[in-house]
Automatic annotation (TrEMBL):
Recorded GO CC terms: plasma membrane
Protein name: Succinate dehydrogenase hydrophobic membrane anchor subunit
Co-factor note (free text): The heme is bound between the two transmembrane subunits.
Transmembrane spans: 26-44, 64-84, 96-118
Taxonomic path: Bacteria, Pseudomonadati, Pseudomonadota, Betaproteobacteria, Burkholderiales
CDD domains hit by this protein: SQR_TypeC_SdhD (cd03494)
Record key words, sorted: Cell inner membrane, Cell membrane, Electron transport, Heme, Iron, Membrane, Metal-binding, Transmembrane, Transmembrane helix, Transport, Tricarboxylic acid cycle
UniProt-listed GO biological process terms: cytochrome complex assembly; tricarboxylic acid cycle
Pfam families: Sdh_cyt
Binding of a ubiquinone, residues: 88
Known cofactor(s): heme
Topology of this chain in the membrane: Multi-pass membrane protein
This protein's record includes keyword NAD: no
Length: 120
């Protein structure tokens, strides 16, 4: 425990700090860039229909970029939800259950997104 001029500072959680702050900013930046690229392709790519939408995601670079954004989204959500559970759910058992549920849900979403993206 660190003393700071008359008040006690209690540090809880093993993952607070620069790493989480930076991961939130990097993942948000990647998602914003993806949104800009997608909007540009929709606006300047011709008439919008199923064929155009399928063509946008048929390019390998777009599949890879989409996969990177999916992983970024999962990391972004995990850091945010973990912080919410740690800050607002005090009973350890309930917090652990919510964290496990969040992990299972995110892994399921990742599997579904990969299946949709590559039609596995």
């Amino acid at each position: 425990m660190t003393k700071t001029y008359g008040s006690e500072r209690i540090v809880v959680g093993a993952h607070y700090g620069l790493r989480d702050w930076l991961s939130q900013r990097v993942t948000a930046t990647l998602m914003a860039l993806f949104t800009i690229v997608l909007i540009a392709q929709l606006l300047f790519g011709g008439p919008l229909g199923y064929d155009r939408w399928a063509a946008i995601f048929s390019a390998q670079w777009m599949k890879v970029f989409t996969f990177v954004v999916i992983v970024s989204l999962l990391i972004h959500v995990w850091v945010g939800m973990r912080d919410v559970w740690m800050d607002y759910v005090k009973p350890v058992g309930i917090r652990l259950a919510l964290q496990v549920f969040t992990i299972v849900w995110l892994v399921g979403c990742a599997g579904w997104a990969i299946q949709v993206l590559w039609r596995l």
